[in-house]
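Question thread 4412

I'm putting together a teaching handout and wanted feedback from people who do this every day. The idea is simple: show students a protein as raw sequence, then show them the structure tokens that encode its fold, then repeat with a second protein so they can compare. Below is the first pair exactly as I plan to print it.
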Amino acid sequence: MARPISPFSEHSLTEWIGLLQQATTPDERYRALLAVKSLGSLDDAVVWSRHSLRDADSAVRALAAKQLGEGKRLPASEAAPWNEIATELTERLADSDIDVRFETARALGRIRSDDESSKGVLLSLLDDDGIQPLMTASIVTALGERSDVDLTLLAPRYGMLLSHEQAEVRESVSAAVAAWNQHASSLVEHLMIALDDEEPLVRENAALALGRAGVASEAILSALRTASTDEDEVVAEAARESLRRLG
């Protein structure tokens, strides 16, 4: 079977690096940074993402931070100078662009799981009423990756977001809670309410989260029994799965 053609095959790696340094338009530099990650080694991606943290364009800076965070999760990442990179990223936590601040905070959390400054940025973004639903979902997921977040700080915020007026927010938060058992156990009351949400995906996630929370109270079991007859079969099966899990 023929190998798929790379979307960056019109230039060599060396040429893309040259464009990243010399291109006058942000779109060209953005694509060049993607190309370096795609065509080069982890070292190439790290070196040029660090370079691009200082780019004049916020989209390029955000991509650079994102790629550094992704690079930390790769098996071959141990050799990279992560302490130096963390210092450079910390400078971007005060960036004027919200996407840069988010990507930087997420990357720092992956590099230093106990980094207080990046945790504070994520929590402040979560409290920002102007955040778009898609970013809210990403923030919730990023916080879920961390082991240093006090659940007493998250539970009230997640509880409010599970009642958010926008379905996309409720869906994203319920999905994140369902994926992280430690969050589910502190949100049982909110999840029981979410079982009656108008959106099937929210109901499904709430049912799954209740099973994973591991709290087998009669109120929860009763709510799940009711949900097991939901008109949406996917929701009903999620409730039945949780009932089996809770025994």
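The second pair follows. I'd like the answer to focus on this one:
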Amino acid sequence: MLGLEKKKFCTVESLCMSYYFGNRENEMEISSFKFVMELNKKEGKQYTDVRFRKSRMPRYNGTVVLFHGFGANKVTMLMTAMYFRTMGFNVLIPDLLGHGESSGKTSFGVRDAEIINEIIDAQLSDHIKGKPIISLGQSLGAYAAMHLAKMRSDVDGILLMAPVADFNKSAIQYVRVFKPPFSSWLSDEDVRQAAQGAISDSNVETNALDMLSLIEKTVIPTLIMTSEIDRITNSKDFAELQGNHIKQVIWKMRAHVFTSAIDPKTHIEVMNWLDLHIKKQPYIYL
């Protein structure tokens, strides 16, 4: 599918992670692709339509690891992955634990990062090692992106799309925005306790989910994309982050579920950031 190979990796404790891998050495025989996405969610309807021409994109030699958000799966990151494929990157797109075709229960990105680290070393080393890695996470997947960057010296960039800064607050807003069955019966305190219970059940340390601390403690160039209207990720939570390695882009009108979509404005921001931190070379705007 789309030039990607579906693979599976199982740990010694029988946790199995499903993922797509796209090898730059086996690129699709296409000169361009059109990215069209229309979302009609409870956050509101949004639409993007943009064509990427391979001949007009810069070329890189590295890998982008793309982590999806809570309740989603690897398929939701395919169009974002295709964008990076047009620039020559390998792409690695896993189902987080407890999502899609991966087994286990949600580990909030922590165990996921450990398994992806194993996958890179055990199954994909020939394609990935010795070349730059960009760790990309959307929403809850931002935790996995940060923890992968913590454990690898070859991660040269971190790209966070609507990252979760405060898990308890985001859980409450997630319930209020998406309104899962019977959620109207739950108070904010009920949701907060359920969120804490889920963290405890996953055996994840609370400080492992301190996103602001994780970002400030790294020295890896980090691009953060948030939106003024996003109720699940509050842009203001990231405004006071200190560090020359950090850049925040705030969109005016972009729903939480739409943050991984690549439109012309996102393309320009990503290109400027890549050109500065990953590789210096001329490029052409769409």
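Top answer:
Good format. For the second protein you could add a caption like this: The longest strand covers residues 32-41. The helical segments are 78-85, 110-122, 125-128, 141-151, 167-178, 188-201, 211-217, 264-277.
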